[in-house]
Protein: Glyoxalase
Amino acid sequence: MKFCWCTIAVRNMEESLKFYQEIVGLSINRRFMTGPGSEIAFLGDGETKIELIHNEGNESVNIGHDISIGFEVNSVDERIKFIKEKGLDLESGPFQPNPHVKFFFVKDPNGVRVQFVENL
Structure:
């Protein structure tokens, strides 16, 4: 069995696509309408994707506070600098719970906690 994607209901597709493309660095894999006012976009080049779903009739999304999605980066310090240059705030961190890993969190436009992790 393989993990295929993580689905995120979004308030604004364009704002969410901008975040995942510019901040996380994912490219659009597929994007299509699923009906009037309903759209899906898959992002990512690897095996696992992020699926964004937007429905015009659903202005509120319920994001759990205890879930995060993580992305590996080459340098946490460089990614923090990049995030701040883009005008975003860190949600928490950076943390280094052991000598082998360092990470921090930001929130996407919908409130999803996004973790950037460096394996040292």
In short: The domain at 69-120 is CATH 3.10.180.10 (2,3-Dihydroxybiphenyl 1,2-Dioxygenase; domain 1). The two ends are 29 Å apart (CA to CA). The helical segments are 13-23, 76-85.
